[in-house]
Write a structure and sequence with these properties.
Cystine Knot Cytokines, subunit B, 2 domains, 15% helix, 3-stranded antiparallel beta sheet, alpha+beta, Cystine-knot_cytokine
Length: 261
């Protein structure tokens, strides 16, 4: 079938740093909405062979500039440091091979930059053009966010199962309820493989002592969005702690950087 039958890019919420929602210790937490080619219907892309994937046909780049918010990456002169990150947003899709080369890659969302440090002047010029950081959006913890992950055996799985969809609470939000189920997937060999898939069903904003007390009363019910062995949630506890701190004081920290430039 022709490539035009590949479904449109699907909405996803990602970290600007890595696929797994984690954040480097010296960077502010930053989560944005993008679109990615991840879906096809049964029988589509058959002319491209068994190694085909849904890949971008056209993309645009989203550039984000951020400050170093700690002293961990500062040099001996205590010079402030700033960085840029570039994410690919998929605008149309086709069938193709999954590649990891530099340049607009098929499947990957993150542009490889050899040296992503920028000057203070560059940061000040670009900061106002940053796309919305969802960590600062009111009520962002009211709903789990759409996420996608490559099948652990994606080289040998049928095309419609290359990417697995799941829902995840934004790091720093409290997971009120989640569930793990086995997603049955079909392999090229004709066999079936079950993949454990964790979905966050409901989330809430962190409310300090009240949430901690509820966690003590119901330790299995309330937990922060964190690492899971199954495909799904993948943030660690240290990262979540830093995110909670940032939610409370991130704007003040960033404002201090801007005022001191």
């Amino acid at each position: 079938m022709p490539d035009s039958f590949v479904l449109e890019p699907q909405r996803e919420v990602i970290s600007i740093y890595k696929d797994d929602f984690t954040t480097p210790p010296s960077r502010p937490q930053y989560f944005i909405e993008v679109y990615r080619c991840v879906k096809v219907e049964v029988g589509e892309c058959s002319s491209s062979g068994p190694s085909a994937y849904p890949v971008p046909k056209t993309t645009n780049e989203i550039e984000i500039v951020v400050p170093d918010i700690t002293n961990k990456d500062r040099d001996s002169s205590n010079k402030k440091k700033f960085y840029k990150y570039v994410v690919y947003n998929h605008t149309s899709c086709q069938c193709g091979k999954l590649t990891y080369r530099n340049g607009p890659p098929n499947g990957r969302l993150y542009k490889t930059i050899t040296n992503n440090e920028v000057s203070a002047a560059y940061f000040k010029a670009k900061y106002s053009k940053n796309t919305v950081n969802l960590i600062r959006v009111c009520n962002v913890c009211n709903n789990a966010q759409p996420r996608y992950k490559l099948h652990p055996k994606h080289f040998n799985v049928d095309l419609q199962y290359k990417y697995l969809a799941y829902q995840q609470c934004l790091p720093g939000c409290v997971v009120v309820k989640n569930e793990t189920s086995n997603k049955q997937t079909s392999m090229l060999s004709g066999s079936s493989v079950n993949v454990p898939l964790t979905n966050d069903i409901s989330c809430k904003a962190y409310d300090g002592a009240k949430t901690q007390q509820q966690g003590k009363n119901n330790p299995q019910k309330l937990k922060s969005s964190s690492s899971e062995t199954p495909v799904g949630n993948s943030s660690d506890q240290d990262a979540n702690y830093e995110i909670l701190v940032y939610i409370a004081s991130g704007k003040v920290t960033l404002a201090a950087f801007l005022l001191s430039l």
